[in-house]
Amino acid sequence: MGAKHRGSIHDFPGFDPNQDAEALYTAMKGFGSDKEAILDIITSRSNRQRQEICQSYKSLYGKDLIADLKYELTGKFERLIVGLMRPPAYCDAKEIKDAISGIGTDEKCLIEILASRTNEQMHQLVAAYKDAYERDLEADIIGDTSGHFQKMLVVLLQGTREEDDVVSEDLVQQDVQDLYEAGELKWGTDEAQFIYILGNRSKQHLRLVFDEYLKTTGKPIEASIRGELSGDFEKLMLAVVKCIRSTPEYFAERLFKSMKGLGTRDNTLIRIMVSRSELDMLDIREIFRTKYEKSLYSMIKNDTSGEYKKSLLKLCGGDDDAAGQFFPEAAQVAYQMWELSAVARVELKGTVRPANDFNPDADAKALRKAMKGLGTDEDTIIDIITHRSNAQRQQIRQTFKSHFGRDLMTDLKSEISGDLARLILGLMMPPAHYDAKQLKKAMEGAGTDEKALIEILATRTNAEIRAINEAYKEDYHKSLEDALSSDTSGHFRRILISLATVSEFMGLRSEIADTPSGDKTSLETRFMTILCTRSYPHLRRVFQEFIKMTNYDVEHTIKKEMSGDVRDAFVAIVQSVKNKPLFFADKLYKSMKGAGTDEKTLTRIMVSRSEIDLLNIRREFIEKYDKSLHQAIEGDTSGDFLKALLALCGGED
């Protein structure tokens, strides 16, 4: 960004410190205080100007302004206003002093401050701590922490990170090798190497190290840190990596977590809003809106109250969701994401490929032997079926019938059961017939599995949809369209039928944005007409134009304006157009998240994507969730079902 100002707070034009000091004195004079006047002045001045106000206040009234503010204000509002009145380094010093004082240590506060500050900010912090408390910060941190966590904090505290933008490719390769040997290749972990490299190398250098580390090991550096380190040391190193990658994104994530769920972590919220208001609040806002599909302003507004809320909103500087608000940074990021999606040519790769030296005769005999007699050899069944392509499995079925006069599917059904049976039998079916069966199951019995209907119909190609229609008709003697018509209703039914009917138009129009807001029926009809019929390349361009015209990503608008199954279907289409492997990675993560496992979704995706793009899905999974799909499956399933899933997964990233 260079010298470009990215804070939300600037020097106030026409600033008069004496006038502000008098106004603050008047606001605190007499019974009660004019909190509105206090917050209006203090949140509208830069920190440099606030220091001048403090000086003028003392000169005019012989009193300490911060002491008076502490006396007049209370609670969270007081902490916020007093925090703004301190010079940044002294504010950080106070936060760290509070974090290490008394019983227990606020490690999260230490991590946040020491992982994110520049060399200059660190030097100022050490000096401010010495001035304010007549103590040595390094000595106090050593006295309150221990182990590798302590060592890394001390390294960061030195403020000696290299700042040279000229990067040596040889040194990058050496650091990658050293980190790999210190962690993945070593019995135990050489923490000193992690501390030295992550604590001293320049940001530009480390970004290249992280890129090369992923290429060399197949894992992001975060995954190795999670696997090799633990406790507060692990959290500190992950925070350092996040700040190296993007300090504003680190703070956007911290802000979101401070307000997510029940209760608000006000100390974190205050500390970040105060410390970043003049540095990179606009960048944080931009990333926040893009990442969480809501503005920082709106989340603060819904999560806080009173003068405290008003002050935070002033520091935030603007609502990026407000009607008519033009905030180009966030819109540009969304636009660029669609641009990348439009030009990217990603080679899709499955994890299951045709077996070399395939012998259907030998496989059929091995499967018959595995199921013959007392007991069943599940390992052999899993090994053969998960390591053959679907075309090869069909040859095995035919050979099995020719040799033994028996139906392989029927024999498998009688020999295996539960989740393993659903997975193995799914793999034995031709893809279109498998999808047709999943759609049939989603519509039969009491209730409808709308999520399964959406997942299949929103993500299949034209050729796949045609094949599914033919398979459905062949297997169930009824058209898919008739089945959908009888089991769903309203706009949702129309969307599904439109998706199930192959049709593509290629003209470039941005007609989505022309729909009047508030007309929900018209809006849903217009979205359906476009999202369900246009080609992927066409839709990517339309979505870019949509951002230009409205300043919103289309997914944000869908979530805001629609609800229920209609919303879910449209969101699935948009996410599939943007990045289909990521869509499935998200579905897999959710199927294994929390208490219990959604085995049906897990099985359906692993079966249907294993020969198409499961390798791409694996890459998106580890990049987004900092753990491999292999690890997630291993931690959430068991027995023969686990073995079969891991075989389909194809490897540990």
Automatic annotation (TrEMBL):
DNA damage keyword on record: no
UniProt-listed SUPFAM superfamilies: Annexin
One GO BP annotation of this record: mitochondrial calcium ion homeostasis
Subcellular location: Cytoplasm; Melanosome
GO function terms (MF aspect): calcium ion binding; calcium-dependent phospholipid binding; phosphatidylserine binding
GO cellular component, one term: plasma membrane
Cross-referenced InterPro entries: Annexin, Annexin_repeat, Annexin_repeat_CS, Annexin_sf, ANX6
Keywords on record: Annexin, Calcium, Calcium/phospholipid-binding, Cytoplasm, Repeat
Function statement: May associate with CD21. May regulate the release of Ca(2+) from intracellular stores.
Comment on protein domains: A pair of annexin repeats may form one binding site for calcium and phospholipid.
Homology family: Belongs to the annexin family.
Listed name of the protein: Annexin
Source organism of the structure: Rhinopithecus bieti
Gene giving rise to this polypeptide: ANXA6
